[in-house]
Amino acid sequence: MNKRRNFIKKSILGSVGATSLINCNNSNSEINNNDTAVYPRIISTWNHGVPANKEAWKYLIEGRTGISAIEAGVKIPEADPKIRSVGFGGYPDREGIVTLDACIMDKHNNCGSVSFLQNIKHPISVARLVMEETPHVMLSGKGALDFAVSKGFKKENLLTEASKLDWINWKKQSNYQPVINLENHDTISMLLIDDNTDLFGACTTSGAAWKMHGRVGDSPIIGAGLFLDNDIGAAAATGLGEAVIRTSGSAMVVELMRQGYTPLAACKEIVERISKIHKSGPVWDYLQVGFIAINKKGEYAGYSLRKGFNYAICDSSNQNLLLDAEYAI
Ligand code: SD4
Asked: Among 1-15, 83-97, 288-302, whose mean pLDDT is lowest?
């Protein structure tokens, strides 16, 4: 009861700062968004972050834990066949097989991850069980599938007719040149700060469309696709996973926040680092990366290399806010 009262009080206080959110994130200058400190708050990548946030928020309102809220949130796009980059209906690899990557992390640095998982609609739930019920952080491929089945998950065909047709079309040229903001992006990464200012994060994807069979991206790798330190903040990535792994992207964003960077400045610094490393290299023409970050006060930002990345915010005064991220080039 007390906890519930606290939640409402903080939410009301939070709404004062939240009115400045839109202006703050539309400016193109260095932002010190201290006036946006609000919690609880949820931020997620891309427009499918909106329904995902809504679901997670519902869980928070019901008094459920941050980890349950974040799992429930990202399960929405995982189950949606219209979203071609996450879970069921995701684009397959070049052999026509849908393989999924996901990870989850809590305020105690507990984390669980699955990679190269097939035939399971909700990899995030398997990742959570890896975290809670095994001595390990990461299970991959057949081992992850066997574990999921042993926990009662049902094996399903994840390749929808629509994704199969697109794959058949792609095979005619077999040219691996992912279309920016469409074929190598749209992972859902979600970060949540609860009413105790505890942080949680999750990330789930079908990875880059038409990838090589066996390829694993950044999304299930703690430190690359997702990282949090409950004393500092949380960060998560979307975009070309290889580029994010090369820089330990999300861990670096959190470390920069530890050094006093705002969430925006931290995301920007790592995007610029990625840009410098890859400029004029073989992936430059189709390189897109984006980060979202939130600090211990609930201040947040999103930033990407190229135009087109957006992210969704949910707090007591904004249930459906979708913001265009600032970008480098
Ligand atoms: C990956 N980061 O596997 C992911 C791609 C992505 O929607 O963002 N997919 O590289």
From this structure: 1-15
